[in-house]
Queue: 2 jobs
Job 1
Amino acid sequence: MAFYLDFENKIKNIQEEIELAEIRKDDHAKAIFEKELDKVVEQTYSNLSAYQQLQLARHQDRPYAIDYVKLIMHDYHEIHGERTFRDDPAIVCYMGYIDEQKCVVIGEQKGRGTKNKLKRNFGMPHPEGYRKALRAVKLAEKFNLPVLMLIDTPGAYPGLGAEERGQSEAIARNLYELSDLGTTTISVVIGEGGSGGALAIGVADRLAMMRYSVFSVISPEGCAAILWNDPTKVETATKALKITAEDLKELDLIDDIIDEPLIGAHRDKNRAADAIKNYFLREVSALEKLSIDERLAKRYARLESIGRFQEDSKA
């Protein structure tokens, strides 16, 4: 059964009426409710708060990286391990085709259901996960294949073992290597982009976000705990952090917003997947018209432009 958030209750009620009309084979009533549903969807999703968008980014039915791989790729094969410690299931890597474009896709995978959540460590990679991602992009560079990176993590795993094996070094190494990679790279935040765990596969020629995804230096819960020691301040923290796609586009921290279905990727996974696929193919086509030197120069200029400050004239 579909899971509805609190602010989606009106949509849930109308959807139930549509289902009842279908059972009764009452086409007239169904048409009326469908028209009403379109109106309520427009009203609801056109005025979402930052906290409501955060809830959508974390929605339990939202497509994860493997869902998108299955929807947009064909003839794909998974790349396992990083040849020094183990295979980290929190990051998945595939080589295959998107339409006729041979490519490598890397994604952070949260897992669905208790067993899979534990297997994927709730989408929080260990350092070997980032090293696996680096191995995959280096393989793509060797064969001049474009790379699509799908970001969806609460953050890098902060456990003792991860720190002992060099979590910060693994993230920093990825930032360094991805900034100078010789092949075309596209990163898309598909759900939750948390801190360095997201940045480790977020340095690219193009960085985009799905309409209802979020990208932040810390979770709103962590921010509320540090600043106010008050869990009820989560909504305030979410708004203050400026973590929505619209916020980051306005601050020039991302390049594009991918227009997922208005009602959310979890309600129309095929259209959401098509939006990612079309964006990837379009941007790869545009970027590959540039020479490697031109592409690297643009990537470096983009990275250097991040960050703003304003001097106080009264100081």
Job 2
Amino acid sequence: MAEAVDVLILSSDLDFATDRVCRELGRRGSSFLRLNRESLPALSLTLDPVAPTLRCNFEGRNWIVDNSLQSVWWRVGTFDRDISDRTLDLQTQLQRSQWSAFLRSMMVFAGAKWINHPAATYEAETKAVQLSVAREVGFDIPQTAMSNDPVAFIDFKPGTRVAFKSIDTLLLREGDTQLFGYTTLLEIEHVAVHDLRLSPATIQAPLETKLDLRVTVVGDAIWCAEVRGRGEQIEGDWRLTPKDELTYPEHVLPPGIERRCRALVARLGLVFGAIDLALANGRYWFIEINPTGEWGWLERPEWSIAATIAGELECRSISSH
């Protein structure tokens, strides 16, 4: 007999933060089915997109997902950032494309509450949209240009420093080496060069003396942590600091900034959002929001992020998408 599913979780094998959510759902007695994208070929899955129903079989156990589904925890990015690799065999290319499409097909369960809906995730992952909406809800935004035109920066004085970023998360491969793009502080003469024409980039006014903040929003709940290196503020991209040097003390946001964080998440059609802010010159600057961002590294006894996510997943509401 097939087990009915209350919560569908679409994730990956190494998503340890989602492990916490699953444990919490299990503790609460919720029936959930977790599908990890790397393990999908080991399962027997059949989707009827019209009914809609999803049947899953694994080692003699059977699950059914139907219109009684309460919610979906979507932990899969919507942009394909894995640049085509000509060395991939045909089977691997086939699996990557078709399983990705299969997971997106879960959108047929339109009556479930999505955290977050793939359509909203796709829009919210777009940096230009983030910055525009953040400004609309009242955040301070560093002066920003997205361009491939070296002449666009002709008014900058030599020696002026800027924050140089990719327009989208940058994940490249060179042979067996994986390359990731970080924010880099550069003098303008190293940015306004002919090679910039080959690919557009984001150039922002730098926040050089700043305190990095990570804000996690789940529904109405909000948590804020400072990101410090050996207890000090970090110049440039904090992700370049060795993890064993990082600390994350709690930071109390002003009520007005909390309201803007919640408003940003709501305006983007999200329930969950991981927001990066920077406190500089007494002002809270918006950097970016990640609708599938990591939060497990911030979980602590007094911060019940996993329990709050589980609680949201137990509350069914009709999706607006």
